[in-house]
Amino acid sequence: MFVNAIKNAKSAIFPIVVRKVENFQKSGKSQPKVGVAICGTGFFISEDGLFLTADHVIESIYKMKGHAIFCGVSQEKLLPKAQRISILFRDKTRDIALGKVENFQSSSLSLLDNNPLVGKSICTGGFAVPRIQSSIKNGGYSLNFKTAPKHWHPSTVIGFEKKMNLSHGKKFDALILHEHGIKGLSGGPILTPEGFVAGIFSSAISRGALPPNSNLAHLYVVNNSAAVAINEINDFLKTYYERRKTA
Description:
Blueprint (H helix, E strand, L loop, with lengths): L2 H7 L3 E14 L2 E16 L5 E4 L1 H9 L3 E6 L5 E14 L4 E6 L19 E7 L6 E2 L14 E16 L5 E7 L11 E3 L5 E12 L12 E9 H17 L1
Antiparallel strand pairs: 1-2, 1-4, 2-3, 2-8, 3-6, 4-5, 5-6, 7-9, 7-11, 9-10, 10-13, 11-12, 12-13
């Protein structure tokens, strides 16, 4: 069902990597230690390097006092030198961030105009369970993408919730997905079988099937995921372009 969608999307999604340089003492001398780690997933929406991701992915990089970098879209297509990512527009409440990789010609994904119906088959793309090595080479980085393979997770839209409240102040129209997401998928695209983006993966969610005061509430927990719905994404981009016109 998703063979063609994945084929077209595999060169348009990429790991968002944080690069952080710290100094440490060795033999009485200060030496730089360069650490890198995948924080989430991004996907290109234009051939000149514009991309979308989840805002909390970018926020986590800022909290680490690191820099977001682009290293390539796969093990076979690593760049000779990592490129710094520019963040152009953010909406913390909606959990959406827009960025750009300069001087990079990319494959890109197209966005749906309207939200998919409940029951629609979808597929989440991203880099699951990321574990990235550290490097002590000056300005270099060491990426072991084999431990963070590109991951495709078919699922189904099982609900739509307007202005869903999530942790850390997030509140947006959400697609509820049958799957229970795993670390690293944050910011990845929610794809339809036709290859269009229907949302951005935000977070795994757990909800009780019984009232919280029930003695059995802890035994009946439903694990799903929430994605930022496409209507929120399209409105976010509309706001960005309107602000650019008036800037």
